[in-house]
Design goal:
alpha/beta, Rossmann fold, seven-stranded parallel beta sheet, 9 helices
Amino acid sequence: MPIGEPLAEIEELQWIDPATQVEELAPLLKDVVFPILLAGSRKIQRLAVFTGSASGKSPVYEQAAKDFARTVSSPGRAIVYGGGRMGLIGTVADAARKAGGEVYGVMPQVLVDGELAHPGLTSLEVVPDMHARKHRMSELADGFVALPGGAGTLEELFGVGTWQQLGIHAKPVALLDVDGFWQPLLKMLDHMTDQGFLAPQFRDSLEVASEPEALLDALSLWQAPAARWGAGSKN
């Protein structure tokens, strides 16, 4: 072999997010190296927000949505949401944009056709249906936060929570508990855990805070639980 000819010891390089569940990884990477890398603070650049298309009966919900959006809208951080202009979700988008924040919407074509899309977003991505919307928002976001809302908010919340349990993603899921709004749900989750239907580590992995700053701090320190059906899982 000629002197100076490089040796092809590494045939391929691939970038892998340490927070992503990849089964093909070597055990040393999966069980030792990546957990150490994730032990520091987690960088939340894009935060998916779920909340109501109605504003609720109390003015405290709208004020909390504005405060939350302004807090999140700092340089290097953006909001990902369903793209709507009505209710609390519209309030979040309006307040974030007014504060100079970036807001990325993802909306199915049928809702765009119904003229429900927010006209002032950083960008609006139009997808075929609701399933594609959820998948795309999950791809874009580094974490998920639910503010007060109704059935759609619960569906989105439990969707990403279930995906976390299954190891489809390893991203934090949180509740902004405005004026005790989520307390009945938290009691139900405690009951599910007590009755053996929800593993304690997944109940504990749900972050809850009543103030935006405390919530963002909790998200930055969050550690992913072992996937329910992953290696070493006992649940």
